Amino acid sequence: MSLPVDLAEYARTKGKGNTSSYIADLIERDRKRDALLAMFARHGYTGDKQVTDDGAATMAARLRDKKRQAAAHREHKAA
Fold first, then answer.
1. Which of 7, 21, 40, 75 is most buried, with most CB under 10 Å away?
2. What does pTM read for this prediction?
3. 46, 39 in Cβ contact below 8 A?
4. pLDDT of 20 above 80
5. CA nearest 50: which of 40, 42, 60?
C-alpha cells in the first residue's frame, strides 16, 4: 500500500525527512485516544466525544467513588 503523492510529500515535510517516524507517531496518538475513549466508556461516559463541565464533574465523581470502593475493599481485606 502506498500513500497518494500529496500526502506522502506532506508527511515527508512534517516528519522533517523521517516519514515513517511521523506516521508512527500519528498512529500511536490515535491508539492512545482510542484507549482513553474506551476507558471513558467503561466508566459510563457514552457521549458524542464532546466533554462538558457537567460530564467532567460526573466522571470525577464516579472515579472518586471507585477509589473509595477500592480503599474500603483493601481495608476490609487487611482486617
1. 40
2. 0.52
3. no
4. yes
5. 40
22 burial (CB, 10 Å; 0-12 / 13-18 / 19+) is: middle
- Which set of grid coordinates corresponds to residue 36? 482513553
The full 3-state SS of the chain, as one line of letters, equals CCCCHHHHHHHHHHCCCCHHHHHHHHHHHHHHHHHHHHHHHHCCCCCCCCCCHHHHHHHHHHHHHHHHHHHHHHHHHHC
Burial level of 45, CB count in 10 A (0-12/13-18/19+)? middle
> Which triple of cell numbers denotes residue 77?
481485606
Pick the closest to residue 65 from 38, 44, 41 (CA basis). Answer: 44
Quickly tell me which residue has 466525544 as its cell.
49
